Amino acid sequence: MTLRLLFDEIRSNIKKISNDLGYPIVEFDVSEAAKPEFGDVSCNIGFLLAKPIKKRPSEIAEIIANEYQKRKRVFVSEVNVHASGYLNFVANHSAFIESVMQSSVRQDYGKFDLGQNSKIVVEHTSVNPNKALHIGHVRNIVIGDTMARILHKACYDVRILNYVDDSGLQVADIVIGFKYGGFDSKPPQNQKFDHYCGDTVYVNITERYGKEPILAEKRTMVLKELEEGNSEVAKFGDEITRRVLEEQLKTCWRLGVTYDCLNFESQIVRSRLWNVVLEKMKSMGLIYLESEGKNAGCWVIKSDSETEEDKILIRSNGVATYIAKDIPYATWKLGILEDPFYYKQYTVQKNGRILWETTLENTETKLNFTGDTVITVIDSRQSRLQKIITKIIEDFKSKGKSYVHLGYESVTLSSDTAKNLNLETEGKSVQMSGRKGIYVNADSVLDILGKKTYDEVKKRNPDLDDALLIKIAEQVAVGALRYAMIKQDLDKIITFDMTESLSLEGDTGPYIQYAYARSVRILEKSDKTPAFDVSFNDLNTSYEKNLVKIIGKFDIQVEDSAKNLSPKLIARYCYDLAVYFNSFYEHVKVLTAESPEMINARLCLVWSFKETLVKALSLLGIDAPYRM
RNA sequence: GGGCCUGUAGCUCAGCUUGGAUAGAGUGCUGGACUUCUAAUCCAGUGGUCAAGGGAUCGAAGCCCUUCGGGCCCGCCA
Hints:
Blueprint: H1 3-20, E1 30-32, E2 41-43, H2 45-53, H3 57-70, E3 76-81, E4 87-91, H4 93-104, E5 119-123, H5 135-153, E6 157-164, H6 169-179, H7 193-208, H8 213-228, H9 232-254, E7 261-264, H10 265-270, H11 273-283, E8 288-289, E9 299-301, E10 311-314, H12 323-333, E11 342-348, E12 354-359, E13 373-377, H13 383-397, E14 403-406, E15 411-413, H14 415-419, E16 430-431, H15 442-460, H16 466-486, E17 494-496, H17 498-501, H18 509-525, H19 542-551, H20 554-563, H21 568-587, H22 596-619
The chain binds one RNA strand of 78 nucleotides through helix 2, helix 6, helix 13, helix 15 and helix 18.
């Protein structure tokens, strides 16, 4: 019995009692008690029935409590009425603890069958392949990757996609840099190619457009050639794109992120999927040829409201707009149209997962990366566009809610960090911009964090060899960055400050990892293997009870997080686990407990905690080092 | 002008979906705890007109309306 089973029992009993008493049906809430002194579980049914049956909440709670006493109650030891009107329950300690301990050591603990193996696509990252990933991209990547892991835990069949926009202006810009801007396509020694393209070539070329009209002229031409795909420029563009992509992926893998398939925009364009979608939209009457007004001669999507502008899909000169690349891609992800692609293996990733890529050449390999539901992780500046796509897809599928835009607010740079980039902002934070060179690269942050944690781990663990120190430092650096990017609500702006992000205390990834290392250490120092076939009744301090209770909540957290597409709930859960463990650690001695039985019982609890934490952290993509 | 998001402690944020018990963390500041399973820790104190006003409710940080402050989006660019 985890907490969920306790809730379920109380819920069904109250429902029965209320029904037997002839009360009207109300949507009452059964939830964890707000404070320990109230008990373990609370129910608000008294408040809800107060009006319909004209009794005071506490009076109703009293009646139900009396009735509850008469019923069979296996997992509830006490039913109390609070003067406020709440109905409070105390769990049967021995039954509860026994069940949490047993279930928490199971390999699949925390799993909750919400998805019933239905296919779900998560698309994230999707960074233009002309630059290195900066910390703003990291937020996207971490949200997408974490969500994918949580959905998998909630029994969805998850496919992860990364969309490579290799035919856009940004790629054209660096192609121009190499072809006409005088840049060598070999980066200076020791510099990653993506850093070189983004930090040097891209920033330089966009700056020169104003002064050198010849470069600007080349732009349109290069862009066209990239889309069409047969020219020498297109081949060169493809080569450059792939070199950048490879370096970007290295950063993603460093963060513990993997994918199933890379989708190249150029191929979507060249596959002519757009024409099929267009004809279908015309025949379904989803788009209109405007005959008058400022949009005369354009195919448009009519807006619902009067104030919102219509969205142009095809210009009066017959050329499709940007959104025309997104719509066929969205239909492809949902498997609405016949798949024009073949697939070939890009690489095998570190975790053994094969990464595929789309191709238009017939490789005789047909795979399926579509889903019944598609989640697209894009920052909320794209909300308007995503709303249009969602609407069109709904018209296509008529099934509703199959295309979900998971939006999030952007990452800005604090004024201090901006100052380090020679940018004076008068104390205000500033939006990042790849074009203007205002950003902090993900690799740099990880390197700086890694250096700091390396020194710290070495100081604390002088006995460890260097290779291990480096590994631990990297795990802590990644943990710190991933946690910082995921703990906050999606619609809050994250202001990134380099100095602040180096803090590893308090509500941080390393704090949680540290709790794990402590638990491992206890188990390591004990010469006994914990035996679980005993009674745990003696674990009855508040520190122990709290820890058991939080461990017992894991599957509920997974459910909530998956249902609400809210990855931060798992981050908070990990933090709470660590807080309760640290408190236990300081107040309750394990290895020097009063009896061998007590030592064993507490070792079991530590083991349970360790297993649960490592599973929860893995949903965040954070490794837990055993020493730090 | 329209749309989306946001405003809770000095600072950074939980809580708001689904109204209910004394509004919680981290950080900062003050003080305390290492001969002890790792002090990246723990414990105590400090700190709040939940932006403002109104409404419905027995009851509002939460729901509705208005106002104000902050951010983002609204091209026959991508």
